[in-house]
Amino acid sequence: xxxxxxxxxxxxxxxxxxxxxxxxxxxxxxxGKQIAVIGPAPAAPGRMVxxxxxxxxxxxxxxxxxxVAAAREATDNEMRDTWPGA
Length: 86
Known about the structure:
The chain is an alpha+beta fold. The protein has 2 domains: about 1-40, YefM-like fold; about 45-80. It is built from 5 helices and 3 strands.
């Protein structure tokens, strides 16, 4: 875990995001106090999306269901096969 001041983080924000993308966690301080933690975003598991859609079947408006169906259709078979929980 790396620490830097808010000023350093501000001046080097693109580099901070690059580090987070590589898996690094950065603690941002101001006046010697920790004020933020910047790190890699958690992966969004497909199983959660699939479970939500399954629970919501029939309760979502027709436009939303059509949008989801169109998005799924637009996804190629290779991607569909790698979707967790699909």
